[in-house]
Write a structure and sequence with these properties.
Blueprint (H helix, E strand, L loop, with lengths): L3 H6 L7 E4 L3 E5 L9 E5 L11 H22 L3 E5 L15 E6 L17 H13 L6
Antiparallel strand pairs: 1-2, 2-3, 3-5, 4-5
This protein binds adenosine monophosphate (AMP) and zinc ion (ZN).
Length: 140
């Protein structure tokens, strides 16, 4: 499979690794949006949140907590944005699930979390919540 992150995991192309464990690899993003920007991936290929098993995702998010804690301490970050994209429409570029850990500082102005806070229509919000509840799959 022609997947760049699978190649990193297989050691075929280099990466600056931060955490290398049985199910999970964390490495530095080579186009960092802030100092310390890193990615956490499952070693088993899964394109996105819809494809990954709950157990692999659990391993990934546990590693995210540890890496986020580590980078926050290491760089004295004032906050950390945790971000994960699914599909081209959400701007996912690399089709191997990864969670971004982006250290943040007051007034760093990064355009990752500052969407306009405009009150929504509560009836519409409740209707959407009802529909979503009907579609929640059983835990596996
Ligand atoms: P996205 O798929 O939009 O969530 O983002 C993919 C991320 O992977 C981008 O932030 C890239 O900078 C990063 N990236 C792509 N190739 C590499 C690589 N070889 N090593 C480290 N990071 C990479
Ligand atoms: Zn892959």
């Amino acid at each position: 499979m022609d997947c760049i992150f699978c190649k990193i995991i297989a050691g075929e192309i280099p990466a600056v690794k931060v955490l290398d464990e049985e199910l999970v690899l964390a490495f530095m993003d080579i186009n960092p949006s802030s100092r310390g920007h890193m990615l956490v991936t499952p070693k088993k290929h899964a394109e996105n949140i819809f494809e990954i098993s709950e157990s692999d995702l659990a391993a990934v998010i546990k590693a995210v907590k540890r890496c986020a804690t580590a980078v926050k301490e290491a760089l004295k970050a004032e906050g950390v944005t945790v971000l994960q994209l699914n599909g081209k429409a959400s701007d996912q570029i690399v089709p191997h699930l990864h969670i971004h850990i982006i250290p943040r500082w007051e007034n760093d102005g990064l355009p990752v979390s500052n969407w306009e806070m405009k009150p929504g229509d509560m009836e519409e919000i409740k209707g959407i919540a009802r529909k979503v509840k009907e579609h929640i799959p059983p835990s596996s």
